[in-house]
Design brief:
The protein is of the alpha/beta class and 324 residues long. Helix content is 37%, strand content 16%. The chain is built from 9 helices and 12 strands. The strands form 3 sheets. A 6-stranded parallel sheet has the order 2-1-3-4-5-11, sandwiched between helices. It has a 4-stranded parallel sheet with strand order 7-6-8-9, with helices on both faces. The longest helix has 21 residues.
């Protein structure tokens, strides 16, 4: 016997669960994404279960195996799946609503919120070029096969300088690959930015601007420059990417690229819930197929850490003839 109004599908608990694959919970970028996802999920009465893969292929594979028993209502990948599991993820997407918040240009087989990282890199470079910066450095986490989307941002940056005939004026400073094999800490990205900037200064490299792969790296660069008594932006300009909360704090006021991270999380969850609704609306085996592919246009948020490039003034010694 069931009480009136309490009749529910026997798998209802599982149907109300959305699984989120996340590479780290220490980065403000992923925290912003999760906030967007959870906001929509809570509004619609869904629970969110986070699988923190720690960028470990073994952990990701383990979580993917769990999907068979958990049978979630939907799955959101907050980054690209490991290349070894791409085919498996596409297979799951045929049975379960699945969205990838992706950094590749286009995803054709799975619903996606896309970000063209090449365009982001170009925008960072163009902002610095417009301010007269010719000698610049780009600091980044490891540029590995697994994290190939990082290279897209770097390549876009370099291409924009290349257009001006300044390819050789860009220093690419990447962290050691071993960093990606460690469990990330809250300060991992900040420390990378700090350390790489210190190395650039110690090596005596010439640059009037630093671009950070993300805001936390750029904030690390700001602290390294401050410690070395290099004035920002008078001596060196700094630009980041993501427009995280810390970047807007008045004392930091970091110039950055806004690409609407929290909205991406909301959109990903919206797509999942729409797909669930479509699935529930049709009782036949023939269901309409639709593929969502959303992309925002990023924009530069200019704050206090970028300014016109410092011009080296050459002082000519003038000989004066003294008449006696």
């Amino acid at each position: 016997y069931e009480l009136p109004g309490r009749r529910k599908h026997k798998d209802n608990r599982k149907e109300k669960l959305i699984i989120v694959f996340c590479p780290t919970l220490t980065s403000p970028y992923y925290v912003l994404l999760l906030q967007g996802i959870e906001a929509v999920a809570n509004e619609q009465g869904y629970g969110v279960f986070i699988c923190n893969t720690q960028r470990d292929a073994g952990l990701e594979e383990k979580y993917l195996r769990m999907m068979q028993t958990m049978r979630p209502a939907g799955i959101i990948y907050t980054c690209n799946p490991h290349p070894d599991f791409q085919h498996q993820v596409e297979k799951i997407a045929k049975e379960t609503p699945l969205v990838i918040i992706s950094n590749k240009e286009k995803t054709t087989t799975v619903d996606a919120i896309n970000q063209d990282n090449t365009v982001v890199g170009k925008m960072m470079a163009r902002h610095l070029l417009d301010l007269g910066h010719r000698d610049v450095a780009f600091i980044t986490p490891p540029l590995t096969r697994r994290q190939w989307q990082r290279s897209k941002r770097v390549n876009g940056f370099v291409k924009e300088f290349e257009k001006e005939g300044l390819r050789d004026h860009v220093i690419i400073k990447a962290a050691d690959e071993s960093i990606d094999s460690r469990i990330p800490r809250m300060d991992t990205e900040y420390s990378m930015g700090y350390q790489l900037t210190m190395e650039l200064l110690q090596e005596g490299r010439q640059f009037t601007a630093i671009a950070g792969q993300n805001d936390m790296m750029a904030i690390g660069a700001l602290d390294a420059l401050h410690e070395a008594k290099v004035h920002v932006p008078k001596d060196v300009s700094v630009i980041g990417c993501d427009n995280i909360f810390y970047s807007g704090i008045r004392r930091i006021a970091l110039t950055t690229i806004e690409h609407f991270v929290a909205l991406k999380g909301r959109d990903a969850c919206d797509i999942i819930i729409r797909k669930i609704g479509t699935k529930d609306s049709f009782f036949s085996d023939i269901q309409p197929t639709s593929l969502y592919n959303i992309e925002y246009s990023p924009r530069v948020i200019a704050r206090k850490t970028t300014g016109y490039a410092k011009v080296e003034k050459k002082i000519k010694k003038q000989k004066t003839n003294k008449n006696k």
